[in-house]
Amino acid sequence: PSNFLEIDVGNPQTVGVGRGRFTTYEIRVKTNLPIFKLKESTVRRRYSDFEWLRNELERESKVVVPPLPGKALLRQLPFRGDDGIFDDSFIEERKQALEQFINKVAGHPLAQNERCLHMFLQDEVIDKNYTPSKIRHT
What we know:
By secondary structure, this protein is of the alpha+beta class. It contains three helices and three strands; from the N terminus they run βββααα. Pfam families: PX.
């Protein structure tokens, strides 16, 4: 069988209250690529985790990293007639945009060698103090 890497972003959950409120997304990975230690994994990530990944890849790799969906600053203004960034339609749009982003990034052969991508996709907790490095095929 040919190599595959499937990444789904789904099952958004909004947690917290007030200014500490945010939405996390479930990231499900299925792959048979030998460079990934887990063939199947599920983690939860929030938008700021995607920002972290993008910044790490821009800093550490030669990959041209696609832009993330915008920060939606207008949606955070008070007195809107909806839930702003917690509105279901916005969360759905963002979920799809994040899925496109992570699939573009993870599909890049150079990005697949970056430790930050592996942590983002497969580690329960992202160690933001990690030492950037390349993953070696074992």
